[in-house]
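> forwarded from #structure-qc
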């Protein structure tokens, strides 16, 4: 279940990916864009039943485009923080629409945490669309199409 808050153009929004188990979730809380690059900046929070981690996460429009291209090509994609402070990896588990989500928070020069959990396409596809929408709301980079079940719409 994924939700993206619908707010005004300048207000921060949250993008959430979660499984049916409420203890396992990923939240990107949007902050002001980087004033020098225009990249989107987030606070990333990831949790499982016993572990929680949070930290900064910055996404460039080019990185998001590469993420979506990889997703369309093979249903496996990695979204990298431009500063090396984390990553979000989505991988297909089977042909039934199940996915593994792996999130790393923290870079090589800081404390790190890595969590993984399983979910399905009902959470992954809206999550990808919500991240794309956050970029489009800021007017950064080229407009990216909705993911949809069969590819970009």
């Amino acid at each position: 279940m994924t939700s993206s808050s619908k707010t005004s153009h300048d207000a921060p929004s949250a993008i959430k990916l979660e499984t049916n188990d409420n203890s396992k979730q990923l939240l990107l809380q949007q902050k002001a864009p980087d004033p020098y690059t225009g990249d989107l900046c987030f606070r990333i929070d990831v949790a499982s039943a016993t572990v929680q981690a949070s930290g900064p996460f910055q996404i460039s429009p080019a990185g998001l485009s590469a993420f979506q291209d990889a997703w369309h090509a093979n249903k496996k994609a990695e979204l990298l923080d431009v500063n090396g402070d984390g990553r979000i990896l989505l991988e297909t588990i089977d042909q039934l629409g199940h996915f593994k989500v792996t999130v790393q928070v923290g870079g090589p020069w800081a404390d790190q945490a890595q969590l993984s959990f399983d979910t399905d396409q009902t959470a992954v596809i809206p999550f990808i669309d919500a991240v794309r929408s956050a970029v489009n709301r800021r007017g950064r980079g080229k407009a990216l199409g909705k993911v949809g079940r069969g590819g970009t719409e």
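QC bot note: The longest strand covers residues 40-47. The chain has one domain: 2-138.
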